[in-house]
């Protein structure tokens, strides 16, 4: 496991941008260059000693002196915004609650879909591995309100509607 001192000897943390610059030249990596590349999952990863580390985990290590115990959540939902003030430890459920809507979401609102059979907008929310029905509504806005009311109740500051 990497230590704060070892990472600090290789990388310079830029607190204003949440990114790292290389301090040393190693092979094709030149000192002064931005460290890391974007992974298929959308996170920035940095290769150290032939192993990839998520940049936000390295930020947490540099800022706190220890590895995160729980998953890290990007408060603004941007997986590339790795400023320390944008990171917080959370449970998997809280992290999921703060996720953005899926690309295949047709309503554009988390937890809301149009039910053709009933000719109504339907809202539901997932909590603790179970799906809870929040009712059928005449408008998309009413369904969105039902979702956000429940999301705020269940997830508090982690609630996100889009």
Structure, explained:
This protein has 162 residues and is of the alpha+beta class. It has helices spanning 4-10, 55-64, 92-97, 140-155; strands at 11-14, 19-22, 37-38, 44-48, 51-54, 72-74, 87-89, 112-115, 120-127, 130-137. The strands form four sheets. It has a three-stranded antiparallel beta sheet. Strand 9 and strand 10 (130-137) form a beta hairpin. The protein is elongated and about 65 Å long. The two termini are 36 Å apart. The model has no long low-confidence stretch (mean pLDDT 92).
Please write out the topology.
Layout: H1 4-10, E1 11-14, E2 19-22, E3 37-38, E4 44-48, E5 51-54, H2 55-64, E6 72-74, E7 87-89, H3 92-97, E8 112-115, E9 120-127, E10 130-137, H4 140-155
Antiparallel strand pairs: 1-2, 3-4, 4-5, 6-7, 8-9, 9-10
Q: Report the β-strand fraction as a percent range.
A: 25-35%
Q: What is the makeup of the main sheet?
A: 3 strands, antiparallel
Whole-Å distance between the termini?
36 Å
Helix content class: 10-25%
SSE string: HEEEEEHEEHEEEH
How many strand segments? 10
Strand order of the largest sheet: 3-4-5
Our count of helices gives: 4
Structural class by SSE content: alpha+beta
């Amino acid at each position: 496991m990497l230590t704060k001192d070892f990472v600090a000897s290789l990388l310079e943390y830029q607190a204003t941008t949440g990114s790292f610059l290389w301090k040393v030249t190693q092979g094709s990596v030149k000192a002064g260059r931005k460290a890391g590349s974007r992974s298929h999952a959308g996170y920035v990863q940095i290769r150290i000693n032939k192993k990839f580390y998520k940049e936000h985990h390295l930020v947490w290590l540099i800022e706190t002196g220890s590895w995160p115990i729980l998953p890290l959540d990007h408060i603004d939902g941007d997986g590339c915004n790795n400023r320390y003030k944008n990171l917080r430890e959370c449970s998997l459920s809280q992290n999921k609650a703060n996720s953005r809507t899926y690309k295949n979401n047709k309503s554009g609102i988390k937890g809301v879909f149009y039910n053709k059979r009933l000719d109504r907008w339907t809202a539901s929310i997932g909590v603790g591995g179970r799906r809870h029905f929040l009712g059928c509504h005449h408008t998309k806005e009413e369904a969105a309100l039902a979702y956000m009311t429940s999301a705020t109740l269940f997830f508090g500051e982690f609630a996100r509607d889009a």
